[in-house]
Amino acid sequence: MKRNKFAICLSWAAVAACMGAIFWFSSRSGGESQNQSDFFAAFFNLPLSSFIIRKGAHFLEFTGLAVLLFIALRLSFGYFRPFLALIIAAVYAASDEIHQLFVEGRACRIFDWLTDCLGSASGIIVLCLIVIIFNRKKRCRH
Known about the structure:
Number of strands: 0
Radius of gyration: 17 Å
Low-confidence stretches: none
């Protein structure tokens, strides 16, 4: 398989941008994060608590990161590495929780790390299913 260097660089840039966004969100104080969650709930008229919105954000941030890692690894190596994508996302999630120890009003929570890992695993599972379905349809056409 011929590797497209531009696509590889672009995919890793997307991974770095996602990691940067997660780092930025984690750099916000507890009060700022709370206000942001409350604004989101009010703007979309969601009857959800700030707690649910924040845990959902953890889940979705790391779903996105895992998907981007999955794609970047696929483009870089030419075959799928779902477990490597999951390990990288889990390690980054752990570093994110440690980072929050140094942010006012934030804490390092195992529950948040597990939520991040669950989001990562969900994204990878969905992509694996898409790949399996795509490959089966591709084989059926030939």
